[in-house]
């Protein structure tokens, strides 16, 4: 029993996922006997590797309703996001120097946008409503004749909310603006179709979908054609958009991960959703003053972002050190600022400091969740007994009525 | 982040958690920090007629380092005179718990809390400083 207790429980599936053993099995031969360079055109080693890459390209394309010719392999979603934004802006930016994105995007999108701003491009950062979703009217109003591209992530990494991709795609197409979406957290979690959703560019990550780390893809639409300026140049691989020898084993892994996700998504989502609802119900049955951050229905099954009022997130993490979850509180940074995503939602700063992100995934069991729920509840109760804010709340004192000296 | 054994001990087994009646004249209360910053510390002292701190209690909303800093300072001030307790420096707390640089503010908060509690006690008992503790 003690040994069982000591085994850490992984509930951080938005950070990364373990590689599915079926994916590893598919990859292994390409490290050893099938090690050829897929770009070697004059012998069987190269052909064999190239064939494997093309099978994988097709598997990646299928899960998003694309053609395999539209898939560019990269090192991951960060590189894909960089290539999409910088590549498009540098190609079209002379005539259309404007880019639109959202304040709750992943840092790699925001940072690419900042770099483009420094180079003289114009960027509009859309805010979000208190449920984490963008306001489509605001998007419409932000598009000008100078807008080249709109970049909106499909699923938020912190709060799991799903943006209205189809509606965004329609608005963009109608205005002749490209639509890029960071789908690192969306592929294999929600149905995606680049044609139905009118998506022009899409970033894909391997390690978020039970594939290997170090591999990702960028979907780049061919009709109507989207042009990007390569950010990594060299041998001109990937139709000139991304040079560098393709890592065959990683690509085979990404393809296999997409293939599995496509076949199992519906069933897996139903199972994970049930576990998530069960978890939330157990929290609500036992603890008062807990809040779900982000829209409760427009979100992926595996994400539960909860604020446990009056308990600071980092101390909670320290208490449940056997459970791997993530906190929205970034007290470890010198800035003492809580999550920018939660703040963008308008979550009270004190509540933003009390959030945990619980990520449920392919290998999560109900037993693990039971153990995690118990530990979290015990920790919350202990820390609330220690919390002056909880004490004030019980005495009926409104914390907002106190004049705090911000430090 | 790797924390020291002492810090973890104070976090896991905090000393002197609790509250005293803040309306009692022998009790001084300090409430410092702000919820929006992720740290609030309430520190209370019970002072004898001859000016010795006979008991101390705390409640803290904050990270593990903030909880450990408050726990430690309640241990340190017990049995001390108000002047002795008021001269505890945050650097002593930071050193004792081996706080990492990003957590130094937790020790500053603990120092502020004891100073605020002493000031509150003095104000209540008509001993000088008119300025409010909070």
Automatic annotation (TrEMBL), chain B:
<dbReference type="GO" id="GO:0005737">
    <property type="term" value="C:cytoplasm"/>
</dbReference>
<protein>
    <recommendedName>
        <fullName>Iron-sulfur cluster assembly scaffold protein IscU</fullName>
    </recommendedName>
</protein>
<dbReference type="InterPro" id="IPR011339">
    <property type="entry name" value="ISCU"/>
</dbReference>
<comment type="similarity">
    <text>Belongs to the NifU family.</text>
</comment>
<dbReference type="GO" id="GO:0051536">
    <property type="term" value="F:iron-sulfur cluster binding"/>
</dbReference>
<dbReference type="InterPro" id="IPR002871">
    <property type="entry name" value="NIF_FeS_clus_asmbl_NifU_N"/>
</dbReference>
<comment type="function">
    <text>A scaffold on which IscS assembles Fe-S clusters. It is likely that Fe-S cluster coordination is flexible as the role of this complex is to build and then hand off Fe-S clusters.</text>
</comment>
<dbReference type="Pfam" id="PF01592">
    <property type="entry name" value="NifU_N"/>
</dbReference>
<feature type="domain" description="NIF system FeS cluster assembly NifU N-terminal">
    <location>
        <begin position="2"/>
        <end position="126"/>
    </location>
</feature>
<dbReference type="GO" id="GO:0016226">
    <property type="term" value="P:iron-sulfur cluster assembly"/>
</dbReference>
<dbReference type="GO" id="GO:0005506">
    <property type="term" value="F:iron ion binding"/>
</dbReference>
